[in-house]
Protein 1
Amino acid sequence: MAVLDVRPPNSTTLPTSKADHYVGVHRVFCVGQNYADHVAEMGGDAKADPPIFFMKPASAVVSSGQTIPFPPATENLHHEVELVVVMKRGGANISEADALDHIYGYAAGNDLTRRDIQAAAKSKGAPWDMAKGFDNSAIVGTVHPVAEVGHLNTGAVVCFVDGETRQNGDLNQMIWSVPEIIATLSKLVTLEAGDIIMTGTPAGVGPIVKGQTCVCEIEGLSPAKVTFEA
Ligand code: MG
C-alpha cells in the first residue's frame, strides 16, 4: 500500500448560496487592467491586448466574513473589488460562444494587493507574484450558481472601507468580457473545474489599514467582507 509521507493542507472550499453546498477551488486566475478608469489611475493609457493574467495560490482564498491578520511586508495594502467567475468544467481552446456553459456561478471578490511591492516589481520589470499571491489575498463571497443569478455583464461594482465608498463602477465597463477572458485564458492553459477567475477592478483602489473592514459588492451577489486585525 502506498503511504503519503507528506500531506498538504486540504483544498480550499467556498460556500454557495444553496445550503450545505460548496465548491472546491483548484486555481485562482486574475485579470489585470480590465477597466479603463483603473488603467488610467495606475498610469497606463491603453487597452492591454491580449489581457494581462496573473495567479494567486488557491490557499490564498478566504471566504467572506472573516477577520484576518494584516498582511506582512507592506505599507500600502490596496482593495480591488472584482467579479469572480467559478468554473464548473474545464477545457482548452474554449470558444467565446461556449464559454458561458463552462461557468458554475459568480461571486463578489477582493483582489488584495501589496501595492508597494507591485510598484517596485513593475519598476524593475519583475514578476508581481509577491504583490498579489500572498496569504489571505483573495477574499471571495458566497458563490451564486448561474441557475440562480444568470450570467452577469452589467451591474454595480462597489467597494466600501469602514462604510466609506471607495470604488463605484459597473460590470459593463469591463474591457474584456467574461467569454473573451475564458476563451483567451483557455488558449494559454487547460482550464479545470474549480478554477476561479477574478476579472479586474474599476477605479478607486486605495489603502486599507489595520483594524478596518472592507466590503466588496457586486449587484445581485452576496458581499465579500473582510476585517483586518488591529
Ligand atoms: Mg485586480
Protein 2
Amino acid sequence: MSTTPPPAFELAGIRHRYGARTVLSIPHLAIPRGETLGIIGPSGAGKSTLLRLLQGLERPTEGTIDVDGAPMPHPVPLPLSRRITTVFQRPLMLDRSVRDNVLFGLRVRGIKDRAAADPLLERLGLVHLANARARHLSGGEIQRVALARAMAIEPDVLLLDEPAANLDPANVARVEAFIRDAQSRGTTIVLVTHNTHEARRLAHSTVLLIEGGVVETGPTAALFESPAEERTRAFLAGELVY
Ligand code: ADP
C-alpha cells in the first residue's frame, strides 16, 4: 500500500475570472508537503491571485483546490486558515509597536512572554526598531516585521508575496536565511517572486506564469538550466518585454 502523503495543495481545472477576464488558468498543479514552490512571471501574470486562492481568500471561478487531500471549504474554517499564513506584498500592521506585531503571531501559539519576540526581530535585523510604531516604518522594514510575525505562528504553509522586494542585499540575505529555517522545519512554502535568482536559490520546483497561464513547471534546476519552452528561455534571459 502506498504511504505517500497527499500534496499540501492540489489544483485541478482552475480558472479564475474578474468580470469577463480570465486572469488565471491552471489545468493541474500539485505542491508537495514540505517543499518550496517558486512562482515566477511578469507583473500582472496572476501570481498574487494564485496566493489568494491558496489562502482561501477567494474561491476559484472554476476548478478545485484540495488541501492535504480534501477540498478546501469556503469560508475557510479558522483552524485551517491559521495553518496557512500569507505575507502580503504590502502587509497590514497593527497600529502598535514592532514587538507587539510579532507578539500577535506568538499569542496565536499561546506564548505571552514579550521577550520571545526578540530573537525573531534580531534575526531579521529589527531589534533596534522593537519599540517603534510599526506603521511608521519603511516598506522593506514592514515586510520583515510581517515575515517575523508570520514565522512566529509556525504555520504549516507559508505563502510569500515578493518577500525580498525593497530590501538591500544584507536584508535579502537575512530574509533568505529565515526562509531556509522554515524549510528545514518542514514548512511548505509558495514563493512569489519576480526575482528569478531568488526562486533558483530557494525553490525545489518552479512555475512560470505568463498572462495567467502556466508556461512551464518543473524542478527548479531543470527549468533554469534546460527550459523546455522557448518562452521560458526568453523570460529567463530577460528578453520578454511586457
Ligand atoms: P501579479 O501578482 O502576477 O502581478 P495579479 O495576480 O496581481 O498579478 O493580477 C493578475 C491580473 O488580475 C492583473 O491584470 C490584475 O489587474 C487583475 N486583478 C487582480 N485582482 C483583481 C481584482 N480584484 N479585480 C479585477 N482585476 C484584478
